[in-house]
Amino acid sequence: MQSAIRTQELNPAKLTSLFRKQFELCRVGPGQTVAIVSDLGTRREYIQAAFAASQEIGFDIYEMCVNAIPGWTSVGVPTIGKCKGTLEALMAVDMVLIFHVPLFSKWLRDVQAKGVRVQMIIDAPDDLYQLQSPPGLKEAVVHAHKLYEKTRDVRVTSKAGTDLTYKCGEYPVMSQYGMADEPGRFDHWGVGLLHTFPNEGSAQGRVVIAPGDVVILPYCRYVQDAIELEIRDGHIVSIEGGLDAALMREWLGEGKTSENDKDPYALSHLGWGLNPQCRWDSLALYGDAPERSRAASRSFPGNFLFSTGPNTQGGGKRTTRGHYDVPMRNCTISLDGNVVVKEGRVVDPKMIVERVAR
What we know:
The chain is of the alpha+beta class. It is built from 9 helices and 20 strands. It is globular.
C-alpha cells in the first residue's frame, strides 16, 4: 500500500534562490546564455524561478517550449530538431536547462558534442531542495567513475539469489553528480550515480529482483514478489515469478517490433547510486508519483541500478522502447574482484559522502 501524496513543504518563494544556487553549481555566470527547453507539462514556477535567478546573476536566458508532453515511459523521443532551427539554436548556447528526459536521443549527443552542458530537471520542488548535490558528492562520483573505467569484470551477488557477471570497456562510463558544470556535460539535478553498458553478449547469470526493490521505470512501485531472471549472452531469456514478473513480461513484450526482436530483453545501463540525500523509502514517504521518485529512488547509496533495453546513449545501436529501470537493494558489487558495495552498503571510503540535514 502506497502512502498518499503529501503536500509541498518547500516555500514556493524559495525557488528562485534554489535555482540560483543550482546555476552557481553549474558555473553559469554573466556573459553566458542558457536555453530552457520546456514542454506543455512543465511547472511554470520553475520557468519563473529560472528567469528571476538569471536576472540576479546576470546571464541571458530564453525559453523554447516544445508542443508535446513527453512521457516518463518513453525514452529517445526527439523533442528537438524536427522544427527548423531548434537544434542549431541549442548548439549555440552555453547550457540547456531541460524539463523532460532527453536521454537516448540523437539531438542530445549532437548538442553535447558542441560543448554545451545540459542540466535536466524532472523532480518535485521538495526533492530539488533535499537532493541538491551535497559537498563531496562530485569527488565521490568522479572517483567511482575512474575506478569503473578501469574495470573489466564485474560480479553482482545477493542473498536473494542474484549472481550476475558482465564485462566492461566496450562502452563509456557515464556518471552524474547533480550539476552540469563542465563543457558537454549532461546531468540530472538531484542524482548521484554512475553506470556503463555491458560489453555486447557478455552478461551471464541470474538476477533476482527482490521484494522491496524499486521498479522506477516504467512503473513507480516497490516489488511485492520476487522476479527471477535468467541472463544469457547479454539478454534476459526467462522471467519467472508472480505479479511483478507478469508486469515485466508484459512491458518488455510490448516493446518488441517483431516476434524475434530481442532488444527489449538486452541488459542496458548497469551501475550504482551514491547520493546520501536520496532515500530508498521515498515512495513510502511521499507517494508513488513519478515526480517524487525519479532521482530519490534511483540514486540512494549502494543500490545496484539494473536496467534493460536501449544503449544508444553509450554509442550502441539499440533504440527499443522496452526500457526497465530497477534500483536493487542489498547487493554486493565487485569490480575486478574488489568489493565496493557490500550487501547494499558502500564500503569504498572514497565513495562515502556524508548526508546534509536540510
